[in-house]
């Protein structure tokens, strides 16, 4: 998976306080969410979440990554909005 999709997945896990709930939100199986989270942690060589059967919490690295993900996702959304607004303005002036 691409890095942006991984960021979106991670933000969903944190927002929903669980892997299964994030999977439901994104249309992914719990096994897929678990595998992608593990792959993400392996890629960076850090543990992002403390997990138990009933609770997840962010590690220090996870909190830093989560904040960065939120900023990047917001920036992408803002850029998309600017492009769409600019495209609509251009279409009106042609």
From TrEMBL:
Keywords in alphabetical order: DNA-binding, Transcription, Transcription regulation
Protein origin, superkingdom: Bacteria
Domain HTH lysR-type: from-to ranges: 1-59
Any GO MF annotation of the entry: DNA binding
Entry annotated with the keyword Transcription regulation: yes
Alphabetized InterPro entries for the sequence: LysR-type_TF_proteobact-type, LysR_HTH_N, WH-like_DNA-bd_sf, WH_DNA-bd_sf
PANTHER family, sorted: HTH-TYPE TRANSCRIPTIONAL ACTIVATOR TTDR-RELATED, HTH-TYPE TRANSCRIPTIONAL REGULATOR
Family, similarity comment: Belongs to the LysR transcriptional regulatory family.
Protein name: D-malate degradation protein R
Species per Swiss-Prot/TrEMBL record: Photobacterium damselae
């Amino acid at each position: 998976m691409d890095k942006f999709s991984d960021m979106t997945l991670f933000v969903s896990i944190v927002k929903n306080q669980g892997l299964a709930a994030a999977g439901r939100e994104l249309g992914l199986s719990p096994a897929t969410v678990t595998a992608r989270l593990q792959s993400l942690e392996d890629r960076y060589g850090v543990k992002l979440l403390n997990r138990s059967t009933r609770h997840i919490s962010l590690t220090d690295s996870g909190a830093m990554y989560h904040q960065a993900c939120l900023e990047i996702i917001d920036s992408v959304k803002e850029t998309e909005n600017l492009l769409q607004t600019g495209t609509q303005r251009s279409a009106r002036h042609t």
